[in-house]
Amino acid sequence: METRVTALPKLFIGLDIHKSSWKIHCSTDLFSGKSFSMEPHCKILYKYVQKHYPDHQVSIAYEAGCFGYAAHREFESYGWQSLVVNPADIHRKGKEQYTKTDRIDAQLISRELKDGRLESIGIVGEERECFRSLFRRRYSLSKDLRRIKSMIKMQLLYFGVKLPREFDNDHWSHAFRTWLEVQEFSHGTANESLASKLRSFRFLDQEFRHISNQIRAYARTHYKKDYYLLKSVPGIGGIVAAGILAELGDLRRFNTLKHLAGYVGIAPGIYQSGTTSRTTGMTPRAQRLMRSYFVEASWQAVRTDPIMQAYYRKHVGKDSKKIIIKVAHKLLSRTLAVIKTETPYEIGVVA
User: Fold this and answer.
1) In degrees to the nearest 10, what's the CA dihedral of 175, 178, 180, 182?
2) What is the CA radius of gyration of the chain?
3) Alpha-carbon distances, residue 123 vs 29, 116, 240, 247, 314 (angstroms)
4) Closest to 165 measured CA to CA, from 157, 156, 176, 174
5) Pairing relation of β-strands 81-85 and 268-273?
6) Which of 119, 117, 118, 113 is nearest to 29 (CA)?
7) Span 290-319, mean pLDDT?
């Protein structure tokens, strides 16, 4: 009786990706395989697989990081199943928790992939990935702006220059900027130091405004419907709405509020053992940038929406930071509802 192979043999590749080299571990459904290093090029790996593992069904995985999704897209173009995984999802046993090398990392990824325990993070399209890059550039500029502002005020404080009462706040008005321009120190070197900082400030401020305008314009053009739906939510302005679209993508992909809240990080951690049960605060695994934006938006929602304000007042007496997280969770729920129902937010309406 003639026997036939009815299923393709499977190959599982764990890839520890670096700039100068890749550490590879190949295993099959029958053998544990081997580890080796190679140049960081997808085509070289493809040729290796074609030579040594022809007619195998290939699955490959690597950790998410600074190398993005370019390798993932090329692997998929070869017909391979490719996963980009969160490093925290890779299970380590015993001493594996205390020993880390590139070889071990590749072996662990291959093992977890073979056992079917890995799930890929959400992979966005190239267009949205580029939009996200522009949004993150704005965030980087905002940090640089805060830093240079602190440096300017630090120099004034160091040399004993008192800020006028009307300028002693966080708002950098045009009058304050004009006042800074005419400040004189007793030595020219200090004047040059301040002038250099002011040039940096002016550049960063102009760049920050330009990028902000570009972000809003792009969102209005390419995501018009969702952009204006999000803007109808109290506390969510043009930049936050664009950030939601860039960082979270289409909210319709989240089946439940629990799924979305867990992704953003506005969900409590829980510890339960026997009769003991307690919450451990917000989970450290989060989309931190959007979590901070939703918390900021919640303060604005409390000021403008009577329903959100009543919800806040219902918990008065507790820690205000814990209360605002509850409000942020409720605001996130309403934001998801606005997108899924495609109905603009109505202030003062009880959900």
Assistant:
1) -140
2) 26
3) 27, 19, 21, 11, 40
4) 176
5) unpaired
6) 113
7) 90
Q: For the whole model, what pTM was predicted?
A: 0.86
* Contact between 69 and 84 (Cβ < 8 Å): yes
Sheet containing 22-28: which strands, arranged edge to edge? 34-38, 22-28, 10-17, 57-63, 81-85
Task: With a cut of 60, say whether residue 1 has pLDDT above it.
Answer: no
Q: Which residues pair with 119 in a beta bridge?
A: none
Q: What are phi and psi of 121, to 5 degrees?
A: -70, 170
CA 241 – CA 293 distance, rounded (Å):
10
Summarised one tens digit per residue, pLDDT across range 116-173 is 999 998 888 899 999 999 999 999 999 999 999 999 999 999 999 999 999 988 889 9
To the nearest 10°, report the CA torsion of 211, 70, 15, 55: 160
Rounded CA-CA distance 131/227 in Å is 14
**Measured distance CA(156)–CA(183) in Å, rounded:** 9
Secondary structure string (H, E, C) spanning the chain: CCCCCCCCCEEEEEEEECCCCEEEEEEECCCCCEEEEECCCHHHHHHHHHHHCCCCEEEEEEECCCCCCHHHHHHHHCCCEEEEECHHHCCCCHHHHCCCCHHHHHHHHHHHHHCCCCCCCCCCCHHHHHHHHHHHHHHHHHHHHHHHHHHHHHHHHHCCCCCCHHHCCCCCCHHHHHHHHCCCCCCHHHHHHHHHHHHHHHHHHHHHHHHHHHHHHHHHHHCHHHHHHHHCCCCCCHHHHHHHHHHHCCHHHCCCHHHHHHHHCCCEEEEEECCEEEEEEECCCCCHHHHHHHHHHHHHHHHHCHHHHHHHHHCECECHHHHHHHHHHHHHHHHHHHHHHCCCCCCCCCC
Tell me the residue type at 327.
Answer: V
Report which residue type is found at 147. R
| Distance, C-alpha 82 to centroid of its chain | 21
Q: What is the pLDDT of residue 192?
A: 96
